[in-house]
Task: structure prediction
Amino acid sequence: MGVLETKNLSYVYGAGTPFRMDAITDINIKIEKGERVGIIGHTGSGKSTLVQHFNGLLKPESGKVLLDGRDIWENPKQIRKIRFKVGLVFQYPEHQLFDETVYKDIAFGPKNMGLSEAEIRERVGEAVEIVGLSKKLLEKSPFDLSGGEKRRAAIAGVIAMKPSVLVLDEPTAGLDPKGRDSILYNLKRYQEQAGTTMLLVSHSMEDVAKFAKRVLVMNKGRVAMFDTVPKIFQCADELSGMGLNIPQITQVFIGLKKRGVPVKANVYTLEQAAKELASLKGGGTPGA
Ligand SMILES: Nc1ncnc2c1ncn2[C@@H]1O[C@H](COP(=O)(O)OP(=O)(O)OP(=O)(O)O)[C@@H](O)[C@H]1O
Ligand SMILES: [Mg+2]
Result:
């Protein structure tokens, strides 16, 4: 049994109006407990619409979302509880910040869960450490933070609820590469320690390759592929037909292999590339 599953899930914006938009159609996916999954797709392919169903922010037009095997809408009055179990960091997480201080903002979720002050304090402390936010910022207004700090604060607010599933919708968009890498690294380390199921929506194939084991590719509101990173990157032509590109470094290695250089084709980070080239130089058996 997967932790999160959808069955024939569809959603339409503006149903019954001339602006009707079939945003996602007939989605059937299953995510296992403790998995790290990347979600990728061209702009408008339905990624945000899909993930907003996971914590009940959007209600399916048709079909179901199952959490631990149970329909999350089984009892609509209980939907709030689902939001504690499935944490969603929005595409523009800075919009999630609204309180007087960063501390209060991060504490908002745990407070809603009815936890004690002591427990809340502890959770906020842990969460800021995980996201790499300085404790000095806790008494500041969230509006005085930099873009990267705002992201970290928004992510901390969701982590502080200790959700069993954590969904991040483009958490690093608009940040510089250093900030992006640092957030992804922290999230990955946290995931490995806590065993949380994590879903990362991203435009960046590089980020997804670094972060996820499996990748869900969305195209025009439908699931185009759902497979391991190496399998997905083998479909470079199909992906480019959907307006997606595999990482540049992967393209280079596929090109080398085509030209008869004995390297692996499934290289997607600079670190892997350096290793592969070093073993080639050393006369090992790369690509074996
Ligand atoms: N609130 C809304 N009202 C009407 N249409 C919407 C709304 N939100 C999204 N859409 C439309 O639904 C489709 C799917 O949008 P969605 O935001 O889920 O895509 P996305 O893959 O997250 O895109 P992006 O990569 O730009 O974030 C798009 O055609 C979009 O224009
Ligand atoms: Mg989106």
